[in-house]
Specification:
- There is one protein chain.
- The protein has one domain.
- It has about 60 residues and is mainly alpha-helical.
- It has two helices and no strands.
């Protein structure tokens, strides 16, 4: 879930604006937790494919 649509229960403002300490703390927590979740699916698939290709290349070179 992204924080841009969340509303703070403390100040009733969007969490993405960070108006109060509760908003700012939750915004920081969500940004740290969602590093890989924030990637779009195409980028994540490309990252996995590149990793598999690198492993295959290393295995081929050592054989």
């Amino acid at each position: 879930m992204t924080y841009d649509r969340l509303v703070c229960a403390n100040c009733a403002a969007p969490v993405s604006e960070g108006r109060c300490p509760v908003c700012r703390a939750n915004r920081e927590r969500l940004q740290q937790e969602n590093f890989l979740a924030g990637l779009n699916p195409v980028a994540l698939i490309a990252l996995v494919a590149a990793l598999i290709a690198a492993v295959a290349l290393l295995a081929h070179q050592t054989a």
